[in-house]
UniProtKB/TrEMBL annotation:
PANTHER family: RADICAL SAM DOMAIN PROTEIN, SLL1084 PROTEIN. SUPFAM superfamilies: Radical SAM enzymes. This is Radical SAM protein. Residues 81-327 form the Radical SAM core domain. Pfam families: Radical_SAM (PF04055). It comes from the Archaea.
């Protein structure tokens, strides 16, 4: 009611951010909440145009997809003014892999110069932040030539960030880049030497997109995700990258997409096979329902109503993988010192209860299958 009252006096509501696409599936909420404009994409330049339109009393567009000249260059992106959430430091924007399910690949690649990154690190340190996240949709792409990582820019980047932060994490990295960097240059090992050498941390967290274990789907929806390796060897690339991370105390959260538009039951079983092959490597696997983004933004959502037996088997495999490695991570890496003993005990109790409940669920499913 307050919003509607303010809108009668001329207030305008503009909505943006990474999840703007979700509003397109709830047009009723756009009207109900009085949203004037949805901005889908990077807003540094387009927001200035919209503000001028408001001041001039012009009618606002309902939806803007940021592209072409409206995409900000490095010079258009201002430095942060205060401490960022989780000490996050953006190092680049865009991705060259062109996966069809991802919106980031629709944006051009731009690398932040080290002096800009250092200014933002200084802002965070001044705000009392001592720990942070290097953010990119693929950290190992920083300073790359196309999709091929280069050692020098990445080494300089990590030396700079560790100059200011006690501990760091990567927001995202691609599995092909991890494999290539280590096989070609021993680069992952070199970067972890920089990260661990001051003794303030003994592991690094990162999110990696596995997406699928199916070669057919990999070739269909993300042919460049395995580059410079062939899409036919994508499962092998995933395994090799997980092995490299395990050896370097990098703990990945590996996301998988369940219910891709072209997915078949055989594709799901290929993903199950990959999960089995990843069991020796410390990691947390995260299967997620497909959501319509990127080139797939006009496709329908995947919901639990569409789950089949293969999907259920996948979730079971992932559960036992995760609890196995969660216990290892808690014991060896997570929350060191007596101060955290109560929290660690609580987490271990939770895992114990979860395992017991899962066995009950599996028994129930088995009994239903026999009927």
């Amino acid at each position: 009611q307050k919003l509607l009252k303010e809108k009668k006096h001329g207030m305008k509501i503009l909505v943006g951010g990474p999840s703007t696409w979700q509003w397109l599936w709830r047009e009723d909420m756009i009207e109900k909440l009085g949203v004037d404009t949805l901005v889908d994409g990077e807003g540094e330049k387009v927001i200035v145009k919209l503000a001028q339109m408001i001041l001039d009393g012009e009618e606002l567009p309902k939806y803007i997809y940021v592209s072409g000249d409206d995409v900000p260059s490095i010079e258009d992106i201002p430095d942060i003014k205060g401490g960022s959430v989780n000490g996050l430091i953006e190092i680049m924007r865009g991705c060259a892999r062109s996966c069809r399910f991802c919106s980031v690949t629709l944006r051009p690649t731009r690398y932040y110069p080290l002096d800009k990154i250092e200014r933002e690190l200084q802002v965070n340190v001044k705000a009392g932040i001592k720990h942070g996240v290097i953010h990119s949709d693929d950290v190992l792409f920083y300073g790359a030539v196309g999709i091929l990582p280069k050692p020098e820019p990445l080494i300089k980047l990590h030396q700079l960030v560790k100059k200011y932060y006690k501990t760091i994490a990567w927001s995202h990295a691609s599995l092909a880049a991890i494999r290539y960097s280590e096989e070609k240059y021993g680069l992952v090992s070199k970067l972890m030497e920089i990260v661990y050498q001051d003794g303030n941390q003994n592991y690094l967290g990162v999110e990696v997109g596995i997406e699928t274990g199916s070669v057919r789907l990999a070739k269909e929806i993300m042919p460049a995700k395995s580059a410079p390796y062939k899409p036919e060897s994508y499962p092998e690339t995933v395994e090799e990258a997980f092995k490299i991370m395990h050896e370097n105390h990098i703990i990945p959260a590996g996301t998988m997409i369940v219910g891709l538009p072209e997915e078949t039951e055989d594709d799901v079983y290929r993903t199950i096979e990959l999960v089995d092959n990843l069991r020796p490597y410390r990691s947390i696997l995260v299967p997620m329902f497909f959501v319509p983004m990127g080139y797939f933004k006009n496709k329908d959502w995947f919901t639990r109503v569409k789950l089949n037996d293969a999907h259920i088997e996948l979730y079971k495999k992932v559960f036992w993988h995760d609890v196995y490695w969660a216990e290892d991570i808690i014991n060896k890496f997570y929350m060191k010192g007596p101060l955290y003993y109560p929290v660690k005990l609580t987490l271990k109790l939770f895992l114990s209860i979860a395992k017991r409940k899962m066995k009950q669920v599996e028994a129930m499913l088995e009994s239903k299958l026999r009927q």
